[in-house]
Amino acid sequence: MSSIPKIVILGAGYGGILTAQRLQKELNYNEADVTLVNRHDYHYITTHLHMPAAGTDKVEHARVSISKLIDEFKIDLVKSSVKEIRLQDRKVILEDGTLSYDYLIIALGGEPETFGIPGMLEHAMTIRSINSVRLIREHIEYQFAMYKNDNKRNRIRFVVGGAGFSGVEFVAELADRIPQLCREFDVDPKHVHIYNVEAAPSALPGFDPELVEHAMNVLKKKGVTFKIGVPIKQCLPDGVIVGEGEKIDAATVVWTGGIRGNALLEQAGLEVMRGRVKVDEYLRAPGHEHVYVIGDNSLVFNKEGRPYPPTAQIAMQQGVNCARNIVAAIRSKQAQPFEFTSKGTVASLGKGEAIAVVGDKKYKGWKAAQLKKLVDLRYLFIIGGIPLVLRKGRFFG
């Protein structure tokens, strides 16, 4: 070990950026070398991506330059892709170099989980990055433009696989965008169809049933057709096969049906479940006390023995805890076990509509929509203070 420990953070998502910021704050000058590795020079706000994907907001609102979030005198930002993690050598192989570490934080984000559905990886689009969001938006606009040329009805049929948070929030924004697209391209709105297909017996699994019913009613009024308890059996270039062989013709299929961890973890020799590592109480990989795994890459169980869903708020809290524990390790102090504290759950249903649970209180409609905006503003404040709130924040309305 060198005289100054080397800390390497892989990924600048919610967990990675919070880890970096907390280390920056708590470490003394020259107490450790911290390197943050990320594929892009920006951090993107995953919970906001459904809006630019549908075209109801600008892509710029969903991303922030990393240089505005960290002090580059304290943290070295390396823009590169991770190719391999060599745990025995304590090295990370990048596409253009190698980093050695004393402490490693793996926060690489997830990959789409298609559950082996044939054709899904090849033919469906996913809301997973700034580039994928641009592609979806441009693809939707292209289908409207082409419909005016060839009159193929499947061009203005849209299938969204999965009615969890991402799926419901995306179909809500898409339903809000359709009237504008119809005006722009002179398309009769009654020919446009949005299908939301979910294999589970309920939309928004795990959410309060009364609020789920409200959400579905709001979206049905906006023109969304739900197929609940109906699995997608196959994804084709021109639609999907659902249930007992029914085909839905559609030129656009967006898959939001789940995410798994990152393939690099299993390749590194870590034991994984659907690509995630079941971490110890201090967020460390079993058998590797200098390796921490957070965000979509980690598996953390609640007191009932069920895994927490991978959300932004759990990743943020893990980032703070992880940084504290690394500082404690460097200073030979006692680590703190990770305990997740839920701040509530909010799902957006498009303009002026949402559902929310905070503590034992339930909210819906305009009030819940304002809560959603408060959640977004709070995150901007946490990572960038008032200047970022003023620059990126979407305020009340």
UniProtKB/TrEMBL annotation:
<dbReference type="Pfam" id="PF07992">
    <property type="entry name" value="Pyr_redox_2"/>
</dbReference>
<comment type="similarity">
    <text>Belongs to the NADH dehydrogenase family.</text>
</comment>
<dbReference type="GO" id="GO:0019646">
    <property type="term" value="P:aerobic electron transport chain"/>
</dbReference>
<protein>
    <submittedName>
        <fullName>NAD(P)/FAD-dependent oxidoreductase</fullName>
    </submittedName>
</protein>
<dbReference type="GO" id="GO:0003955">
    <property type="term" value="F:NAD(P)H dehydrogenase (quinone) activity"/>
</dbReference>
<keyword id="KW-0274">FAD</keyword>
<dbReference type="InterPro" id="IPR023753">
    <property type="entry name" value="FAD/NAD-binding_dom"/>
</dbReference>
<dbReference type="InterPro" id="IPR051169">
    <property type="entry name" value="NADH-Q_oxidoreductase"/>
</dbReference>
<dbReference type="InterPro" id="IPR036188">
    <property type="entry name" value="FAD/NAD-bd_sf"/>
</dbReference>
<feature type="domain" description="FAD/NAD(P)-binding">
    <location>
        <begin position="6"/>
        <end position="319"/>
    </location>
</feature>
<keyword id="KW-0560">Oxidoreductase</keyword>
<keyword id="KW-0285">Flavoprotein</keyword>
